[in-house]
Amino acid sequence: MQKTRRSSRKLCVVEVCLLAGLAVFLLSGAVSLQAQDQLADKVVRLHVLANSDTEEDQALKLRVRDKVLARATEILEQSADRKEAEACLRGQLLELERIAAEEIAAAGYDYPVTVRLEDTMFPTKVYDGFTLPAGEYLALRVVIGKGAGQNWWCVVFPPLCTAAASDVSETAMAAGLSEADVGLITEEDSGYVLKFKCVELWEQIKGRLGA
User: Fold this and answer.
1) Is residue 107 a contact partner of residue 128, using CB atoms and an 8 Å limit?
2) Which residues contact 73 (CB under 8 A, 6 or more apart)?
3) What tens digit of pLDDT does each residue of 66-111 get?
4) What is the DSSP string of 74-102?
5) What is the pLDDT of residues 14-39, one digit of tens each?
6) How many CB atoms lie within 10 A of CB 4?
7) Which of 28, 92, 132, 154 has its C-alpha lying 20 to 30 A from 71's C-alpha?
8) How deeply is 41 buried, as exposed, middle or buried, from its count of CB atoms within 10 A (0-12, 13-18, 19+)?
9) What are the DSSP calls for 39-55, one per residue?
10) Strand order across the beta sheet in which 113-122 lies
11) What is the pTM for the complete model shown?
């Protein structure tokens, strides 16, 4: 009888610990999602999808990336915030598509290419000097051919794709990101590494529930 009671008490303790851990996870995930949403409202990402995973198509992807990134960076030089950046890019989508098509043709391919601005889901991504949590972001998407190959992504506004690691904070804040945003993406708060994973798990759960 005593053994049964002791076992029941142990089970209760384990259950309480599991519930407490779940509560912490849920709270952390909710806070992290809010931080990600606020960050997403301030950035535009660049997403380039290759036709396939062949060595040639992957090399072409990088050539197209370089051309589009260079022109997009010029277009966004005078943008003070995400709203202005989006407006500038929307007004130049046809030009960016033309630049991409010309580079594809110059490389000897006849793949079609589309350039669009649209909300896109991204996983957690570590770059040189900063990290972005998983979530939905506005993205300048360049799809080459079938768009079935490994893709490349970065942040075109603020221009973090071209910023040196040492300049990330200054570049981000100049584009309207707060100190908290910069602390988040540069991992000055080490606890955010775990929170990024919470965001990713939350997004997976939401996706399954919505399926």
Assistant:
1) no
2) 156, 159, 161, 162
3) 999 999 999 999 999 999 999 999 999 999 999 999 999 999 999 9
4) HHTTT--SHHHHHHHHHTTHHHHHHHHHH
5) 454 454 444 444 444 444 456 678 88
6) 8
7) 132
8) middle
9) HHTT-EEEEEE-S-SSH
10) 113-122, 135-144, 44-49, 151-157
11) 0.75
